[in-house]
Amino acid sequence: MISVEDAQTRLLALAAPLSSETVPLRAAANRWLAAPVAARRDQPPFDASAMDGYAVAGDPAAGDSFQVVGEAGAGHGFAGSVGPGQAVRIFTGAPVPAGTSRVVIQEDVDRQGDRITLRVAADSGRNIRPQGADFAAGARLAPRWLRPADLALLAAMNVAQVPVARRPVVAFIATGDELVMPGEDPGPDQIIASNSFALEAMARAAGAETRLLPIARDEDAALRAVFALADGADVIVTIGGASVGDHDLVARTAGDLGLVPAFHKVAMRPGKPLLAGRLGASVLLGLPGNPVSAIITGQLFLLPLLRALQGDPAPLPAPQAAILTEPLPANGPRAHYMRARLAGDRITPFAQQDSALLTILSEASALLIRPASDGQRQPGETVPYLPF
Ligand SMILES: Nc1nc2c(c(=O)[nH]1)N[C@H]1C(S)=C(S)[C@@H](COP(=O)(O)OP(=O)(O)OC[C@H]3O[C@@H](n4cnc5c(N)ncnc54)[C@H](O)[C@@H]3O)O[C@H]1N2
Ligand code: MOO
């Protein structure tokens, strides 16, 4: 059995980056910016007022008085120039008129007709946002996951079309005679297929386009037929049938179909039966069937794979540190990803860690990482975890 880190490295080695495409700005949310884009203008494009008040020159003192000679608003500046003893009524976002060098806020001014008098000396701030203070024309936004703030930044840069990585297509195949879809009528020996729904949501949030294929019965022919439906997918994710039982067919059937294996079985808990390899033009990721195992291996393997396919050079989740609240016995030879609750900087693993318990997983906010063969841990010690 190989370590989690080895398995992740081998899987990511299968991730040849996808091509890019250009999409309208609004369609770029949550996608990977595939190439640097340059600002097409300065922002602000002119020295702009940061406050509502009066634009004047110099460093006026309390009692100084000015004649108001015009107005500058956002979207319509003051065309003339402003001389000594003159002021322009100005509003936030307006271009600062030629000849002025600061904005006195209106709260500090008494106005009578077209004259203003300063109640206090102008303060040290000029209340002006200089041209290009946010960014200058030509400034670049480097490849990254585009968050909402990045969309606003691209818009301000006047970038309407955005180069992003093509969405990876992920096909999900749940396997097992016991499975029916939610809303169907399960037979007495059947359960509801649940894992695909978590995994599909996870993949979509990571930018993938998803296909939920029909459940494959536990026979070679049925599994082959569903594999055929996955044709063209960048990633095929099977769920279940990865272990050693007589009905665990994924490795065998995929092998007969030409799977070039990268690994099968990883020293982790949950998730030991995980397998991966290249199947034709697709990457095959065979997840274990237990719900917690499937979702955690999805988190640790499927998500990084999807990020890497889209070009993210650092696709792996970064462990954080928290303070343990309870003693933990020494860990065995498999890295253990314990379902845990995080409160501030303190982490408490759930007492029950069975890999079939979706209620516990749903309550969990962290996966406490016990490295393989880690010794006993005491309350107060710092331990690694992954946010969940
Ligand atoms: N003799 C051994 N038995 C098992 C081993 C082992 O090493 N030796 N490994 C165990 C571990 S660890 C895991 S994890 C499971 C995973 O096995 P499979 O990947 O073959 O999964 P299945 O047997 O098909 O299913 C396991 C469990 O999960 C339920 N399941 C399956 N698919 C779904 C789904 N889409 N939604 C909800 N639940 C699902 C299934 O009904 C089973 O209860 O093997 C252990 N056995
Ligand atoms: O290692 Mo399995 O994934 O615990 O249930």
From TrEMBL:
Q: Which residues form the MoaB/Mog domain?
A: 171-308
A Pfam family it matches? MoeA_C
Q: In which pathway does it act?
A: Cofactor biosynthesis; molybdopterin biosynthesis
Q: Would the keyword Metal-binding turn up in this protein's UniProt record?
A: yes
- Gene3D superfamilies recorded for this chain? MoaB/Mog-like domain (3.40.980.10), MoeA, C-terminal, domain IV (2.40.340.10), Molybdopterin biosynthesis moea protein, domain 2 (3.90.105.10), Molybdopterin biosynthesis moea protein, domain 3 (2.170.190.11)
Superkingdom, taxonomy of origin: Bacteria
Q: Name one GO molecular function term.
A: metal ion binding
SMART domains referenced in this protein's UniProt entry, alphabetically: MoCF_biosynth
The Gene Ontology biological process terms listed for this entry are: Mo-molybdopterin cofactor biosynthetic process
Task: Give the protein's cofactors.
Answer: Mg(2+)
Top enzyme class: transferase
State the EC number(s): 2.10.1.1
GO CC field: cytosol
Q: Which reaction equations make up its catalytic activity?
A: adenylyl-molybdopterin + molybdate = Mo-molybdopterin + AMP + H(+)
For this UniProt record, the keywords arranged alphabetically read as follows:
Magnesium, Metal-binding, Molybdenum, Molybdenum cofactor biosynthesis, Transferase
Q: What does this protein do?
A: Catalyzes the insertion of molybdate into adenylated molybdopterin with the concomitant release of AMP.
Which family, according to UniProt? Answer: Belongs to the MoeA family.
- The protein here is known as Molybdopterin molybdenumtransferase
